[in-house]
Amino acid sequence: MKNYVITIARGFGSGGKDIGTRLAQQLEIPCYENQILEMASEYSGINEDEFYKVNEKLRGTYISNWLKKVPMIKRTTPTVQEFVSDFHLYQIQADIIRELAETESCIIIGKCADHVLKDYDNVISVYIEAPRASCVESICRKMNVTPRKAEELIKKTDKYRYDYYKYYAGGDWRNPINYDFTLNSARIGRERCVELIREYIKIRFGD
């Protein structure tokens, strides 16, 4: 089998990163999330902090309001000066993701990777979600916060991920058409999610 890539989009608290990490360990391939920001910084010479500032989010609420007024056909050439820089940072990350897809088997968490690699035939894209109660419980346990705080974090994080995807991919982050399949991690458990993805890899690419 030639190299393949698994992209994982995830609701905050659904365990998507955990599932991706477990899958990578079992398949013995790298799992990239924020490492892509570090690689983009090294590749471009731009300070790593700049990439973290726009990590799956848009800068400034005024930008989000501006985006709603701009026709999609114009969105590839933003005119707000601050956002031109952000768009450049996204393009650098996209170049890194394409390079990975062309050279090695790996798992990529977030970063609009399903969109960036939508024309590649060696890619499987998965969306991981879970009911809100399950996500709240997961965040409380992982971050040691109250359920109320967990709710706030989930709403905020999912909102900026949605806006980020809407801008760069021009679609709905949660649209099932974007992915090979969607998994409810609370229904079957994270380890079973890993098993299902592994089985699908065999179906798509063979042993």
Q: What's the layout of helices and strands?
A:
Elements (H helix, E strand, L loop, with lengths): L4 E6 L5 H12 L3 E2 L2 H10 L3 H6 L7 H8 L12 H23 L2 E4 L3 H4 L6 E7 L2 H12 L3 H23 L11 E4 H4 L1 H16 L2
Parallel strand pairs: 1-3, 1-4, 2-3, 4-5
Helix pairs in contact: 1-10, 2-5, 7-8
Q: What's the short story on this structure?
A:
It contains ten helices and five strands, in the order E-H-E-H-H-H-H-E-H-E-H-H-E-H-H. It is of the alpha/beta class. The protein has a single domain, classed as Rossmann fold (3-Layer(aba) Sandwich).
Structural features:
single chain, 207 residues, alpha/beta, Rossmann fold, 57% helix
Describe this entry's structure for a reader:
The chain has helices at 16-27, 35-44, 48-53, 61-68, 81-103, 113-116, 132-143, 147-169, 185-188, 190-205, and strands spanning 5-10, 31-32, 106-109, 123-129, 181-184. 34% of the residues are buried. It has 207 residues and is α/β, with parallel strands linked by helices. It has a single domain, classed as P-loop containing nucleotide triphosphate hydrolases (Rossmann fold). Helix 7 (132-143) packs across helix 8. The protein starts with a strand and ends with a helix.
Helix-strand topology string: EHEHHHHEHEHHEHH
CATH class: Alpha Beta
CATH topology: Rossmann fold
Our measurement of the CA-to-CA distance between the termini, rounded to an integer number of angstroms, reads 8 Å
